[in-house]
Specification:
By secondary structure, this protein is of the alpha+beta class. The protein has five helices and four strands, in the order ααβαβαββα.
């Protein structure tokens, strides 16, 4: 069934509706963002453990490792390492995995600022993972993926214990 309204009218309506939804989305986000207050040490511990459970190393018991491309998530995880696990910056090894076409100076500057570590602490790994080969555009991760790790069997099992404590909340 053909509509009697011109396509241009529908296009304008859709643009206005889209703009209205975007404004509403920003209002909702701003309202609920205000509900989150400064994290207590306990809350930071829970969030850090949950981040590790989701994005951290869970099999190699000689080290703690976290890999992610989300800069805000990485900054929060490093806060967990520093404040809860008391890991000094000097013990951390930091690598950035980047696509071969990415400017490494820009990437190092970005991550150095995000995680508050000096530029000389970063190692660059140029790679294209098999999983993302031909599936993602080459510029989908303009700052690469951060890999933070440190040796520590006891800290690894400490985190595993906390994860186990979270799991037991469901029993």
């Amino acid at each position: 069934r053909k509509s009697n309204y011109p396509k241009e009218l529908f296009r304008k309506y859709n643009q206005l509706r889209s703009k209205k939804v975007q404004i509403d989305n920003l209002k909702i986000e701003k309202k609920f963002s205000k509900e989150i207050r400064r994290l207590s040490k306990y809350e930071l511990k829970l969030i850090g453990v949950a981040l590790h459970w989701a994005e951290g190393n869970k099999t190699q018991s000689n080290r703690v490792q976290f890999v992610n491309s989300d800069s805000n998530m990485a900054a929060l995880y490093l806060r967990f390492l520093r404040e809860i696990l008391q890991i000094p910056d000097e013990k951390m090894t930091v690598s950035i995995m980047v696509h071969p076409n990415i400017n490494t100076n820009t990437v190092i500057k970005f991550w150095s600022k995000v995680v508050n570590l000096p530029r000389e602490r970063f190692h660059i790994v140029r790679q294209i993972s098999r999983a993302s080969q031909r599936k993602r555009p080459f510029n989908s991760l303009p700052y690469g993926t951060l890999d933070v790790r440190f040796s520590g069997r006891q800290k690894f099992y400490q985190i595993r214990g906390w994860i186990d404590g979270l799991i037991k909340q469901n029993i």
